[in-house]
Amino acid sequence: MKFKNFIFNVLAVSVAITVFVACDDDNESPRPEGDKMQIDAYVLNQGNTYSSIASSIGCLDYTAKTATDSVFYLQNGVLPGNTLQYGVVYGSHFYAIAFDSNVLFVCDKNLKLQTSLNVSNPRAMATDGGYVYISNYDGHVTKLDTATMSVVGTVEVGPNPEEMAVANGYLYVVNSDGMNYTNNYANGKSVSKINLSTFTVDKTIAVGLNPTKAVADASGNIFIIAMGDYTAIPSTIQKIDANDNVTDVAEATMMAVNGNQLYAVKVETDFYSKCQKTYFSVNTTTLERTDNILSADVEFPISLSIDPSNGHIFVTSHT
C-alpha cells in the first residue's frame, strides 16, 4: 500500500503522533523481522466493514523515508478489528480502538499485542495521570488504569460522544448526537466537562451543532470543531477558555494543535470530483489567522496530524 503523506516543517514541541488514512485490504503473511522495524509514526487505516475492507496499522520511518502497511498484522498474525477508530501512544504502550469490534488493543511501541479488552462502541481516547479515557458511543466515558489494564470507572455524558481533550484538571468530551441525524443532531450541541479528581461531570457547556473534534493547546484552552449539518450550517472551530467562555474562531473541517498554534483545513467537497481546500493556522492566544501555510496540495484531505517532537505536519488523502 502507498500512503500519500505530505510532511512540512513547522514549530516543534514534544512526543509522537498517530496518523489516520483510508486503506486497502492487504493480505501478507506474518514475518518475524517486523519487531525490528523503526517506527516514528503510526498510520491507522480505518477500513470499511460494509465493503469488507480490513483495518490495519502501518508505520512511518523518518530516516529511511518509508511507509510500511499492516505492521500490526505482521507482528501478531491477526488484524486489528473492524473500523479502527483511534490510536494513542502513552507511556510504554500504543493503544488502539476498533469501533465495530468493540475492542481496545494494548501493544508495545513495536505493535506487539500485549492484551485486549472489550469496550462498548469505542470512539476516541485521551490520556492523563496514568489513565486512558475512552469515549463510548452509547453516551459514556470509560476510565482505564494503565497500571492494571483494568476499567476503574465509567461516567455518563451526552449522546454519541466523540473526541476528548484534557486541560486544567478536566476532561472535555464533545457530544455529537451523531446517530440522531434525521432530527438534525438536536441534542448534539454540548461539551461535557469532567472533573478528573472525582470523575464526575461538573458542567455541560453549550457549543455549536454536532461537535466531533477536540484538542487542547499549551495554555489550557480547548478547541473543538462543531461539524454543523453538512449543508446549511458550516463546520466551525470554537475556543473554550479556562472560564468556559465559547468563541467562534473559523470555519474548518479538521485541525491539529502544536503548542499555542492551531493548524486547520477547510474542505468543501462532493467526494467525487469537487474538492476545494483552505489551509491556515491560528494563534490560540490572539486568534490571529495566517493563510496559505502549506505549499503542496493534497487531493482529498481526510485527516491532519502533527508530530510535536519535530513539528512535522501530516495531511493524509482519502484517495
Walkthrough of the structure:
The protein has 319 residues and is an all-beta fold. It has two domains: 37-118, no CATH class; 121-317, 7 Propeller (Methylamine Dehydrogenase, Chain H), CATH 2.130.10.10. Helices cover 2% and strands 50% of the residues. It has one helix and 27 strands. A four-stranded mixed beta sheet has the order 2-3-4-5. Mean pLDDT is 88; it is low at 1-17 and 20-34.
How would you concisely characterize the structure shown here?
With 319 residues, the protein is an all-beta fold.
How many domains? Answer: 2
Order of helices and strands: EEEEEHEEEEEEEEEEEEEEEEEEEEEE
Please, what is the CATH homologous superfamily of the largest domain? YVTN repeat-like/Quinoprotein amine dehydrogenase
Percentage of β-strand residues: over 45%
Counting DSSP H or I runs of 4 or more residues, the number of helices is 1
Low-confidence stretches: 1-17, 20-34
Taking the sheet with the most strands, its summary is:
4 strands, mixed
Helix content: under 10%
Shape estimate: globular
Please write the CATH class name of the largest domain.
Answer: Mainly Beta
Radius of gyration: 19 Å
**Overall CATH architecture of the largest domain:** 7 Propeller
**CATH topology label of the largest domain:** Methylamine Dehydrogenase, Chain H
Quote the average pLDDT: 88
Strand order of the largest sheet: 2-3-4-5
Overall SS class = mainly beta
